[in-house]
Amino acid sequence: MADPSDAGQPDRYPAPAVHDAAVPHPAVTPPEAAPTMPAAPAEAPATAATADTDVGRRRFFRQFAGELFQGAATVVGAAQALQRASAEAAGAILDPASLGLSPAPVVEPPPAPTGFRTPFRESPGLLHLVDQRLLPDQLVEVDIRSASEAAHAIRSMIVRGAPAIGQVAAIGLALSAQRVRDGRPYARRATLRGAATALVNSRPTAVSVRWAVDRLMARYEAVGDLSDDGGAIADAMREEADTIVFETTEDHGRLAEFGRVALTFPPDRPLQILTHCNTGPLACGQFGTALGIVQAAHHAQQDVHVWVDETRPYLQGARLTTWELAQAGVPHTLIPDVAAGHLMARGEVDVVIVGADRIAANGDTANKVGTYTLAVLAERHEIPFFVAAPINTVDLDTPDGAVIPIEERDADEVLAIRGVNIAPRDTEVRNPTFDVTPAALITAIVTDEGVLRAPYDEALALAAGRREVRRSASRPFGDWGSPATPATTAAASPTAPSPAAPASPPAPDAMAAPGGPGTPASTAREAS
Ligand code: MRU
Description:
Blueprint: H1 54-71, H2 75-89, E1 120-123, E2 126-130, E3 141-144, H3 147-155, H4 162-179, H5 185-200, H6 207-223, H7 230-262, E4 271-275, H8 281-284, H9 290-299, E5 304-309, H10 316-328, E6 332-335, H11 340-345, E7 351-354, E8 358-360, E9 365-368, H12 371-380, E10 385-388, E11 394-395, H13 412-415, E12 416-417, E13 420-421, E14 434-437, E15 444-447, E16 450-452, H14 456-473, H15 486-489
Parallel strand pairs: 4-5, 4-7, 5-6, 7-10, 8-11, 10-15
Antiparallel strand pairs: 1-2, 2-3, 8-9, 9-14, 12-13, 15-16
Helix pairs in contact: 1-2, 2-7, 3-4, 3-5, 4-5, 4-6, 4-7, 5-6, 6-7, 7-9
The structure holds 5-S-methyl-1-O-phosphono-5-thio-D-ribulose.
5-S-methyl-1-O-phosphono-5-thio-D-ribulose is lined by residues 160-163, 277, 279, 283-284, 289, 316, 355-357, 367-368, 433.
């Protein structure tokens, strides 16, 4: 296993890791100490819930849910609706009481689904993050002003989930570029390179952070790393961050629809989907990957039921996935992680769908620890095992899973749950937060470029090439002449969709057989 201390890429942006605040800046802005995080609701920032915003919150969720689910009928429509809903309405905060999170009288009939929430929104000079550590009990936002604050928020899990942290890293870096736009070139360079390094090292397994930071730094360097024109640098980096958010929304809409079309639904009962960790809007920004597929199916009025792994030790499944599915009105049941094998053995799982933090060139996939266990169990019970991830999760520079850096986190996450000890404090702990599922155990990888099957090295390289063609053709702010990357050097597939054309979902593809609970081995296990 890789040494976690070597996990990041400290030499990628060679400069001392200086804090933004160390840079002389004529337009004085607040010092960039690590953000003050709310320890309790009483210390929540000013954007926390107030009685006055309750009406706005309810209106937001009605509007958001309506636009989201109507738009999700088509891939492009989904992306556009999501963006519109996020941009126009995300300023409101959900009233947790309306979800039944606090002790409340039973409401009959059950409240209509309210939709779900994006994990970040912006106002001038500020990025507001939902503090995911406090969900589902409290819905509180934390304000971020710079890359260093963004890195802190990512490291401390205020925001988590591979696509979400990539977008937050990009916006944080753009905020820092804006803060140093009037600074001196050498100081600006030290600030931006130091910030980039801090971000890349904040969660080393998720390649999306490196991918996003590289894109912004490439824009910076294209203007000139010692250019006097700090305004041009800030504008270019801001534009790239906005482009990343725009593309992510579209990519996840495409992925969700590709995945939905590939599912095979039993005629007489719900499709039983098992998922791990949290892969919905909180993890992704707008729509979701594995959970995006679930929600697309639900919106298309296809019957699904989700087994939600609680996802020890951080409980992303118990705290976040259930919260999102409840808001979306998707039937679901929370299970202890260790119950998955039992349910599979009884034929109560049709398909496993999980996300990914990094996919190596050969298809080996790093995802939340416990994913590998599920894949082994799925193979044992001949249940299709699907990874749902956008193409930017694919790291063609990483040949296989053995060299994916695996983050190891603090012992406290294992020793205690929400401050309550569950083991003696001095117990030795090992807390690897991801594991690697070998490509051979993966039935298919659902991406924004379609449903990929083994041999993955070829399929992933071709899909990355197609993604690059689509990206250059659809840049919302025009092309700036991005340099070739390993992904761009992969030949575009002759069957690549026209970049200008909306995504056309693939032909239905057996993700789960209709046999249903108790049907032994009827689920088609392909491609591995
Ligand atoms: O540690 P986390 O909560 O950031 O881990 C998240 C996951 O493992 C997700 O499955 C992964 O990021 C894919 S999210 C679409």
